[in-house]
């Protein structure tokens, strides 16, 4: 049962529907994964702009990538408030994270559980 929680936590950094599908593929619990994804997204949405301000991140690409990877769809929405370049970078980060997770999660999961 402990591995189920770990497997449910692994795909938390991508958008919810894809994370739930990956969770099923690797043996996790999709409902737990959905909760982890939502908590991660909300945390990233709150903390992302604070990190940007605290670290004085001025580069538009860096802002967008930070929000897209850290807060998924909510972060992409927040990135669009900063500007269109930030929004595009956030969208790209979110899509690339989903693609890489779909490809590599089933391959790397057995190595993590060793």
Automatic annotation (TrEMBL):
Top-rank lineage group of the source organism: Bacteria
Compartments in which it is found: Membrane
Keywords on record: Membrane, Transmembrane, Transmembrane helix
Transmembrane segments: 31-52, 92-113
Membrane topology: Multi-pass membrane protein
PANTHER family hit by this protein: MUREIN HYDROLASE EXPORT REGULATOR, PUTATIVE SEROTONIN TRANSPORTER
Protein name: LrgB family protein
Organism (species): Sporolactobacillus kofuensis
